[in-house]
Amino acid sequence: MCGAALVAGCGITAAPQAPAFRTPAPAPSSTAAAAPKVAGTAPARSFEVAVREMAFTRQGRTLETTVYYPQGAGRFPVVLFSHGLGGRPADYAPLLEKWAAAGFVVAAPAYPHTNGDASDYDVLDVVNQPADASYVIGRVLALDGKRGDRFFGQLATDRVAAAGHSAGGITTVGLFTLARDVRLDAGIVLSGSALGAGTGYRGAAAPMLFVHGERDETVSYASGKAAYDAVPWPKAFLSFPKGDHGTTLLRDGGASFQVLAGTTTEFLRFTLYGDPKARSRIPTAAASDDVATLDDRL
Fold this sequence. Notes:
The protein has 8 helices and 9 strands.
C-alpha cells in the first residue's frame, strides 16, 4: 500500500497517458463556486451491499474490477476507486462498502502492474492508470443500457466521481488534470499528491475533497496540501494530526476511520445527489471525536 514515495524514488516524471477518446477541456477561467449539477436528496436508508467481479481489457491491459453496489431500486451514482501501490480493491472494502451502503455503485479496478498480486510489478506504470480508470468508468456506465444486465436502468450515468488512495490518489488527480475525464463531477484524494499528474486542473468545476495524515511517512502532508492548494474549484481538506499513510485512516475501524468514512460519504451525497443537507453535515462529520480538522471551501 506504499505510494508516491516509491514512485518518486523510481524517478517518474512522465505525465499520465490521456484516454484517446477524451480531449481535455480548457482550464477554468475563474474560481467561482459551483453547485452540484443536480439537486436532490440522497437515500436516507442504508442498503445491503453486494459484490460483483468483472474483467475489462484495454489495449491488452487486463483490469480485474470489483464492484460494490447497493441492493435496491433506484438510479445510483458511480464512484471509480483506485488502489495504492501494492494494494488490492479488497484492502479498501470497509470504506467502499460504506459508500455502497449509502447508495453508490463503487467500481474498483486492480491495475495490472501495481496491484499486490501483479507478477510483473512496475511502479512506473502508474502513468497509464488514469486512462485505465476512464476506460473502466465507460465500461461500467455502459451497463446501464445493457438489457438483461443487473445494472440495467440502475446507474445515474450523469453523476460520476473518482477517488483513490496514495498512487491511486495520483491517478485520481490525473483524471482532473492531464487526463481530464469530462464525465467526472467530483473527486476524493486520500493520502495522494500531484506527482506525475501535474496541477493543471482542467475543465468544468468539480468539487474535490483531499484527506491526509500529518504524520504520513510515504506521501508527505506538504505534497498533498500543495495539490489541494492548486485546485481552482470548490474544495475541502480533511487533516488528521496523528494520521499516517493509511493504517489508522483506512483500516483500524476506530475514530479516524469513522471520521474519514462519514466525511467522504456526506461529500459524495452532496456532490453526486445534490443534497444540501449532506453539505451541512460535512463539517459535523469531520469534527466528530476531535481527531481531524477541516479546511472547508466547498
